[in-house]
Fold this protein.
Amino acid sequence: MSTEFKLNVTINPDVKESDFNSSIEMSPLGGKVNVVRRIIGGLLPQGNQPGSGMLSPAERRATNERSRGNRAMSNENDELHVDTSEKRAHELKVRSGPLLSGSAYCLSSCSMILLNKVVLSSYAFDAGISLMFYQNLISSIIVIILGLSGAVSLEKLNWKLIKVWVPVNLIFVGMLVSGMYSLKYINIAMVTILKNVTNILTAVGELYIFRKRQNQKVWTAMFLMIISAVTGGITDLSFDATGYTWQLVNCILTASYSLTLRRVMDTAKAVTKSGSLNEVSMVLLNNLLSLPFGAFLIILFGEWTYVINADVTKIPMFWVVATASGILGLAISFTSMWFLNQTGPTTYSLVGSLNKIPISIAGLLLFNVPVSLPNLFSILFGLFAGIFFAKAKMS
């Protein structure tokens, strides 16, 4: 009886000597494997298994190959799991990107208009130029801080670029100021409808300046927008001639800004050091260059004396709302760029038109605007015409 077998009997008395011959089996690799070793290996501690030192070279190689194969298979499974998780995360990001950016754009746009209405009407703040100056100052400071921290990329300003941009900025300042005063005298729903006139003026300007012809659907939509604007003004119970005049001026300046910007863009890019001009740099240019013009207008119209002596400027909540409106004004610029990047001009234009619906409804409800049934119908008709116009431009 071999020494191995004696040891096995001592440890496990149930094993008989007659089992010795049957304990020798042929391994798949052609070597002999002793069953006794398996029994001893199961009884001894893991670190003291005698079988580990008794394997033949061929068995060791086979064991190592199986171990390497198991590790490789485990690594492949882990990599597959990671790739699948990353793919799912990417798909979720792609699906949620347009929704998040679009919601942020709509929310900031609605909030900005509502807060401006609160400042100008609810607080009876009679200094639209000063409010514009304060909002642009806040926007300029925030963009400069973001640029210095490296969060955004800003083009370095130079005198050539400033000279090229001054005409655009003058129109930009006039557009903001006229918008402020129209919002002071007219309810938000009618301001939204009357803004459709901007689309008409822009289309006419594109036809005569850029020779860009529109299709029949676009002209039909513009005709519907004219009808809605006229009927809206006639049925407006809170009609104010001063407010409507300011809004007409705002539509002219807004269309002029859009058309002038297209002509100046290539010239502005040519005078920059990098040869390009991103949207953030344009936001900074508009807001920063508007400050000296705004200060000049404040002094010219004597608004600075009103701001100093007005009781409303001593209310802390007034400054909270005014500051929030300035931050939201900048947020519109960033969220619109984010949304445009996530979707495209077509979706952006359509959502911009649809966004007028909640703005109009919120304006009517929050500010207790007296509305007749014909006026309400003209407002809804104007919103429909705006959506039809956006879809017509896509075709």
Notes: The two ends are 97 Å apart (CA to CA).
